[in-house]
Structure formats: structure tokens, C-alpha cells
Design goal:
This protein is an alpha/beta fold. The chain is 43% helix and 15% strand. It has nine helices and seven strands, in the order H-H-H-H-E-E-E-H-H-E-H-E-H-E-E-H. It has helices at 2-30, 34-41, 47-53, 62-75, 123-127, 129-139, 176-192, 209-214, 242-253, and strands spanning 90-93, 98-101, 113-118, 144-149, 200-204, 219-225, 228-232. The protein has a seven-stranded mixed sheet. Helix 1 (2-30) packs across helix 4. The longest helix is centred in the N-terminal third of the chain and has 29 residues, at 2-30. The protein is globular, with a radius of gyration of 18 Å. The termini are far apart.
Length: 254
């Protein structure tokens, strides 16, 4: 009991310390020469997205700090870890408009189920979305794929910055209907990349159960199999890696 109390007391301190460090790094990167920014951001952005990113500044004062605190609080306390049973978290399937439980997304419990829990306008996520689509094509015979749309990280009424594509510049949804509408834009983006219709697009409910379960804000990659968490990728954007998840998936289906 004393240990639990001690951990809970120090958690806000850890969050504030990390937010302070992240704020400092974002401000610093904003003011670096372009060639240094390019080197530092190359793991998060590719191609034209990187070219655009190095030309802008994203620190927006208090809105940035508040958004970082929200993300850090969620990322530092996920409810699930690798090896644990999947929670029966409700999700909305966008195509059918019906609610299902998270473990039910897998069509066959013996097959791995790979998912992105993501916010549509986050530029690093969109920059690597084509890689996700390519991986689904490669593994579609042995694994099921889904995208779960969660709360916005960069809404127009919060920490918005110029790198966000125009079609994704929206206010934070306050109802499930608004969140579903925003998720539909992500579906359009997937279609433009030639994504398979077998990719299930879901919406996290307003209680943010899926996001909290995996510490997913702004994005995170997970693999589930037979009711268990088999892999949880690094938190986005800096540790968001399609390659790491691909390697984990290869190991599971070998």
C-alpha cells in the first residue's frame, strides 16, 4: 500500500518533468538551423512531409504545454502491458455503425490482430500511413488489420500547427457523432493510398477506453493475438515505428 501511494504521489512530478523537457526540446528544434532540424526529424517525417516540417515552427505557447501534459499523462500510464489479456473495451465500427468489443475485431482468434490507434491529423502518423497500407497488403493472409481513431492531438481549438493537412483541421470532437465524422476523413485518406477494404476502421468512444488501455495519444501500434497483448510499439511521434511492428509481426507468424 505504501509503495502504491508513493508511486501515485510521484507520478504528477514525473509528468511535469517530462512535459518541461519536451517543451524545451520543441522550442529548441523550432530555432535550430534547417539542416539540423532535418536530421533530428528524419525518423518522424519522410519526403515532402519532412521538407514542409523543417520550414515551420510548432511551439504555440500554453496550448502546446496543455496538449503535452494530456499526451504524457496517458502515455505514462497505459492499462495494458505485453502478455496481459485484452480489455473488453467498446469501439464503434465506422462502416456498420455498430459497437463491438476490442477483442472481437480479430476474425480468427488464432490470427494476430494488428492495429494502429491513431489521431488522423498527426503529421508523423500520416507520413507513414502508406507504409502501414503496404504492410497490410503483405500480411493480409495471416493477420487482421484495423485502425482505431482516437481523440485529436492537434485540433483547431488546441495545439494546431501548419503541418496539419487542410482536410484534417478540425476542432476537438465533443460527441461520438463528431468523432465518427472526423474518422471518416481518415478513411478517405486510407482509400487514396489504395488501402484494402479489409482494414477495419473503428472509433474510440468518448470515454477514450482504447487510448487509455494502450497509452495511445497521439498514436501507437499494437498487436493482439488469442486475447492477449503480444506487442505494444513506442509512443508517437518520436518512437512510432512501422518497421518495429513489422518485425514483431514476422516473428508471430513465422
Amino acid at each position: 500500500q505504501k509503495h502504491t501511494t508513493s508511486v501515485s504521489m510521484f507520478f504528477p512530478i514525473r509528468v511535469f518533468a517530462l512535459v518541461g523537457f519536451q517543451t524545451f526540446m520543441i522550442w529548441t528544434i523550432d530555432h535550430l538551423p534547417e539542416f539540423l532540424k532535418r536530421k533530428l526529424l528524419a525518423s518522424e517525417y519522410q519526403g515532402k512531409d519532412l521538407d514542409e516540417r523543417v520550414k515551420i515552427k510548432i511551439f504555440s505557447g500554453w496550448s502546446t504545454v496543455k496538449a503535452l501534459y494530456r499526451m504524457t499523462s496517458i502515455n505514462m500510464s497505459p492499462a495494458l502491458k505485453v502478455g496481459q489479456q485484452v480489455l473488453h473495451t467498446p469501439l464503434l465500427v465506422l462502416k456498420s455503425g455498430t459497437e463491438i468489443m476490442l477483442p472481437e475485431l480479430s476474425k480468427d482468434s488464432s490470427r494476430p490482430w494488428f492495429s494502429i490507434l491513431a489521431v488522423a491529423p498527426d503529421p508523423p502518423f500520416l507520413s507513414q500511413l502508406a507504409k502501414f497500407v503496404a504492410m497490410q497488403r503483405e500480411f493480409e493472409k495471416v493477420a487482421d488489420f484495423a485502425v482505431v481513431y482516437i481523440e485529436e492531438a492537434h485540433p483547431t481549438d488546441g495545439w494546431m500547427y501548419p503541418a496539419v493537412k487542410q482536410q484534417f483541421k478540425i476542432a476537438q470532437p465533443v460527441t461520438l457523432e463528431e468523432r465518427a465524422t472526423a474518422a471518416a476523413r481518415l478513411g478517405t485518406e486510407l482509400q487514396s493510398l489504395g488501402a484494402s477494404p479489409d482494414i477495419t476502421l473503428c472509433v474510440d468512444l468518448m470515454e477514450n477506453g482504447a487510448s487509455l488501455a494502450f497509452g495511445a495519444l497521439p498514436e501507437r501500434l499494437v498487436i493482439l493475438q488469442a486475447g492477449q497483448v503480444r506487442f505494444i510499439g513506442g509512443k508517437g511521434p518520436e518512437d512510432y515505428s512501422i518497421l518495429a511492428c513489422k518485425q514483431a509481426l514476422e516473428d508471430l507468424v513465422a
